[in-house]
Write a structure and sequence with these properties.
- The protein has a single domain, classed as Rossmann fold, CATH 3.40.50.
- Helix 1 packs across helix 8, helix 5 packs parallel to helix 6 and helix 6 packs parallel to helix 7.
- The N and C termini lie far apart (42 Å).
- It has eight helices and eleven strands.
- With 299 residues, the chain is α/β, with parallel strands linked by helices.
- The strands form two sheets. The protein has a nine-stranded mixed sheet with strand order 1-4-5-7-6-8-9-10-11, with helices on both faces. A two-stranded antiparallel ribbon has the order 2-3.
Length: 299
């Protein structure tokens, strides 16, 4: 499943500093090499279930020691290529300010170099149904084959391969969370309604509920119609106030259904982020979401 372990590497930009001091011009140039994110490791991972290749980034909390008996809550963030650095840095600030408990963060991404290159894989993994029109449009855009509707297989990949590997390798407690934005949040909600016991914390930012004419809302209703006695989960759901395509009313429809069927153990937090678009809402949603899910109690 995995082929190697290496420190997480990113490439820093070349820095040019131009300073003018009175009448004496001074030119300073500094070149920075690759930067290693502290206590973060990257694994190449292959799934035998959906034949997909992944890049897993594991960020360990300060003080993590393989020799002691401490086990940590663990948060899996989808679209790890894009969101892992943001979420990791944010969490470090919260822990430093004693506003969050220390956690292990796992970025689930792909072995590619750009966000655009992830589109075929994330469409395959995060969407619950097949949409020929969307796949054709996306193929014309990214010039790569795109096949949607693989959420079921990715859920198996996550639950039967990725999670067992990570939690066998690192000292994770049974306190498990998932975070995602857009398609990633669509998959998070899909998991909530199809395998709710897999996670007990959900950070769902701008859930792509318009997908397939709101088909996930039907999954939600089927889940609720089965009359589950409990749903031991803390769920944070948010959307930007400037988002289009009916994102706000669809989110409200989803949360209203959960509220109409009170479930023992469910804590639901929903937010509409003022003046935020589908893109700009990400750091706000992740910041408030992590804080809501892991608040240490100190404000």
């Amino acid at each position: 499943m995995f082929t190697h372990l290496k420190p997480h590497i990113t490439t820093a930009l070349l820095c040019f500093i131009l300073m003018l001091l009175l009448t004496s011009p001074v030119f300073a140039q500094q070149t920075k090499g690759p930067v290693t994110l502290q206590n973060t490791y990257t694994y190449s991972f292959h799934s035998n279930i959906n034949n997909g290749d992944y890049e897993l980034e594991v960020s360990l909390p300060p003080g993590y020691n393989a020799a002691d008996t401490i086990h940590y809550p663990i948060l899996y963030v989808l679209d790890g290529n894009t969101f892992m650095p943001l979420l990791m840095t944010m969490q470090q600030f919260f822990v430093t300010g004693e506003e969050s408990v220390p956690i292990i963060i796992v970025g689930v991404g792909y072995p590619v170099n750009s966000l655009l290159e992830t589109m075929p894989m994330r469409t395959r993994d995060y969407t619950p149904t097949y949409d020929f029109a969307f796949d054709t449009m996306m193929k014309n855009y990214v010039h790569q084959p795109v096949t949607s509707g693989g959420a079921d297989k990715f859920l198996q990949t996550l639950s039967k391969e990725i999670i067992p590997f990570v939690e066998h390798t690192y000292k994770a407690s049974n306190d498990r969370a998932i975070a995602g934005h857009s398609f990633g949040a669509l998959f998070g909600a899909y998991t909530l309604f199809h395998q709710p016991q897999l996670f007990n914390r959900y950070l769902l930012s701008s859930v792509s509920l318009p997908w397939d004419n709101g088909s996930l809302l039907k999954d939600e209703q089927q889940f609720l119609d089965a009359a589950p006695a409990s749903l031991n989960a803390k769920v944070f759901v948010s959307v930007g106030s400037k988002e289009e395509n009916g994102m706000i009313p669809l989110m409200q429809q989803m949360t209203a259904a959960l509220k109409a069927h009170p479930l023992k153990g469910l804590t639901l937090v929903e937010k509409i982020m003022d003046n935020e678009t589908h893109a700009s809402v990400v750091p706000v949603a992740f910041s408030q979401g992590v804080h809501a899910l892991y608040n240490s109690g100190k404000e």
